[in-house]
Design brief:
The protein folds into three domains: about 160 residues, Beta-Lactamase, CATH 3.30.450; about 70 residues; about 150 residues, Histidine kinase-like ATPase, C-terminal domain (Heat Shock Protein 90), CATH 3.30.565. The chain contains ten helices and twelve strands. The strands form three sheets. It has a five-stranded antiparallel beta sheet, with helices on both faces. It has a five-stranded mixed beta sheet with strand order 7-9-10-12-11.
Length: about 400
């Protein structure tokens, strides 16, 4: 049974895909009365509330006709009735749903969203469609990242078409897969390096050569330890168990340390890292390890986005009680990447990546009480900025 009877006004002339979600909607009361006649409201609501994942019935105009109790996990209200006449992005508290008057389905971000594309494909084909969706939600002033498996199932009743919307949270599964792949790859690569170095030491007769090889072996071991420590810290940060260790630090020194750490990284081959002097006089305080990891990830991203002979520049300045760290490169971030760059598990570099930029935003905004943002255009290239307080207020 097909469910593709759509208003031609919502379709492109040269395509059977929806251009944007409908802005005009049928009266929700009329739709609800029609739907309640299908099986009876009380039985249907009981069945819906038994589903542990967020679930809703939506119209062909994407209106929510009915929602289950699990929806309240993503809002401050305890009643699912509040979300009637909203849209899927509204019930999941998507941070983009309030960007335009049309709301969910009508923002620049929506064309990259799994919810949008699942509904569009379901309406086009009349078949049940499932797609993964990375979504950032905001609740009580905090931003949370989710990975959902969105499933849209069509149902036709008389002349009305409805869709069953479900959102299964697969965040833990995605995070575990990424962490396992990163850890296994790091362990494998480091052990391989150590094995090669030890093999070289075995055949070396010159003491100087043994010393140099030993230094390389020590560096490889330290890289592995740093990776394990990073993953452990990220896990604690996501669980809310991380307690920042606030100490004083030298801005110039931390930038030089980051540059030195990455100059021999494979992503820096044939490229330059330039550190400009700090423009400020204050002695700031923060969790140095979290800041260092954030800077390392952004500089590494800049190197990976650069071409041979390109330069990645780090600079810092003091202004209005904050320290601003800027990391710039000549590359330009594509539009599709810009909208998803801080989402967990999103990466342009492979399925086992996707924690770098996400961890930067998590560490900086939640634990260092700062901000992270970027600008990218043809004139200036790409500039990532981290801003953190000179003297942060410790958050309970």
């Amino acid at each position: 049974m097909r469910a593709d009877s759509l208003d031609p006004a919502n379709q492109d002339a040269d395509s059977d895909h929806i251009k944007v979600a409908p802005v005009q909607s049928d009266p929700v009361v009329e739709l609800a009365e029609c739907f309640n006649k299908i099986l009876g409201k009380h039985f249907l609501q009981l069945l819906a509330d038994a589903i542990p994942e967020p679930a809703a019935i939506i119209s062909s105009d994407w209106q929510i006709i009915s929602a289950n109790r699990a929806i309240s996990d993503f809002k401050t209200s305890d009643s699912s009735d509040k979300y009637v006449n909203g849209r899927p992005g509204d019930i999941l508290a998507c941070i983009h749903a309030i960007e335009t008057p049309g709301g969910c389905g009508n923002t620049d971000y929506c064309k990259f969203c799994g919810i949008y594309n699942a509904i569009v494909e379901c309406q086009r084909t009349g078949k049940q469609i499932s797609k993964e969706c990375r979504l950032s939600s905001r609740c009580e002033g905090e931003t949370f990242s989710h990975d959902f498996l969105i499933t849209i199932t069509p149902y036709q009743y008389n002349d009305k078409i409805f869709y069953v919307f479900t959102a299964k949270d697969i965040s833990d599964k995605k995070r575990r897969i990424i962490l396992e792949k990163m850890l296994f790859n790091s362990v494998y690569n480091t052990v391989s390096e150590l094995n090669d170095i030890l093999h070289e030491i075995k055949g070396t007769k010159v003491n100087l050569g043994i010393k140099e090889s030993g230094e390389f072996a020590e560096k490889a071991a330290n890289n592995l330890l740093n990776k394990i420590l990073f993953l452990r810290t990220l896990d604690a940060a996501e669980k809310g168990d991380l307690r920042p260790a606030i100490i004083g630090y030298d801005v110039n020194l931390i930038m030089q340390e980051v540059a030195a750490f990455l100059r021999h990284h494979k992503s820096a081959e044939g490229k330059s890292i330039v550190v400009e002097p700090f423009k400020g006089t204050s002695e700031p305080f923060t969790d140095v390890e979290l800041l260092r990891w954030a800077l390392i990830n952004l500089v590494k991203n800049g190197l990976e986005a650069s071409f041979r002979n390109d330069t990645v520049t780090m600079s810092a300045l003091e202004s209005a009680g904050n320290i601003y760290f800027n990391i710039s490169n000549q590359g330009i971030i594509p539009e599709g990447v810009r909208h998803q760059i801080f989402q967990r598990s999103f990466s342009t570099k492979g399925s086992d990546r996707g924690l770098g930029s996400y961890s930067v935003k998590l560490f900086i905004t939640k634990y260092l009480l700062g901000k992270v943002f970027f600008e990218s255009d043809e004139q200036q290239g790409t500039i990532f900025t981290i801003t953190i307080p000179i003297e942060p207020i410790i958050k309970n």
